[in-house]
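User: Second chain of the day. Same drill as before.
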Amino acid sequence: MYHATRQLVRSVGLALCLTALIGTIPARAATLLRDADIEHALKQLGAPVLRAAGLSPNQVRILLIDDSTLNAFIIDTQHIFIHSGLLSKLETAAQVQAVIAHEAAHIANGHISRRLGNMRSARTAAGLGMALAAAAVAAGGGRGAVGLGIGLQSSTLRSLLAHSRAEEASADISSVRYLVRAGVDPQGAIEVQNLFRGQEALAESRQDPYMRSHPLSRDRLRALKGLVASASAKAAPDPASAYWFDRAQGKLTAFTRAPGWTLRRADDSVSADITQLRRAVAYHRQSDLRRAIQNIDAAIGARPNDPFLRDIKGQILLESRRAADAVRVYSAAARLAPREPLILGGLGRAHLAAGNAPEALRTLEAARGRDFRDTRLLRDLAVAYAKTDQNAMASLVTAERYAVQGRLKDAAIHAERAEGALPRGSGPWQRAQDVLSAAQRAKAR
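Assistant: Same format as last time:
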């Protein structure tokens, strides 16, 4: 299920304002692109690099930001964010892995932890696991979204988040070592840096954000080239990594570029199923259901145990108002990936559209247990509670959705409504108390 979502970014006691990283205009919104397929592909690309860095691929998530500029960054020890513009621009799996290795080096070397240690005033909202110092994020294109509230002054964030040249040099050394250890050609690191050559001569307003948070100098680039030259022999491209890179980039561009653009280039994919996936998305966006289903079915035929291809078929059917068929397809996807919250969320949404609110509630609760910060999921869950005459729970989940979005005044209104109707001392009642406490602390600032 491909959709944009304003997702709360969790950190060690602090979530930082994303807008300071992504653009120079404070009102500019940052939106996560949530897609189980793309996130799985990025996990496959990142896993060997993260393991080489001594990090767990199950603990560090690689997520995509909906922004056409070229950037990648961390704000905590559990997430690496890559701009969609950068993923679209890169040309090989090794280049993506070089970006991941560099950000992993900042985590492994403790760079973010040292800066976070200077921000003692931030507090995490008790019970919600969400930080209050986060960025306001707007939904894009009518798709579901999860926001981030209460930002810090952009000048403070710039000084906090911008890596020093010493940190960059340290990350360069570590990242090349990780790439070699993972069997990835470190030349990708040079190719990525070459994308940003000449940026330092531009005014800050015209630079890509990567330059402002990752200062590049000729000396640093020369040193990086020396590191790569002295590394082990050039590694051969890994076919599996090439596949997942092409699939992530192909699906991303199929949803973000014009359908005609996609159809003209779909045959350039590294495998037939990616070609068919790209065509299916393009035809779906042209409202050509017959050809969309024809192509996605061909892709599923080539990879019958792939849950993510069924996920996109379910999305196509649901958005084409074929709710009953979507339930069937999403159910098959969920059987193949029972722990994937985005697929479970799509199944719950299909049940709602098909008029089966009790089953939607059961499925959406399971999805919430795995990803409680997706506001599209929380919105659907509130609808399911309302349709099953559990209005107090609907108010609670709505309060939590507003809290995740940083709309704490609205969250307090719904939390008070839920608190008055829920059994005192119960788990849901305590969740309402947590939202109210968060709202009160925000109001006191």
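Confidence is low (pLDDT under 50) at residues 6-29, 118-161.

User: Great, on to the next one.
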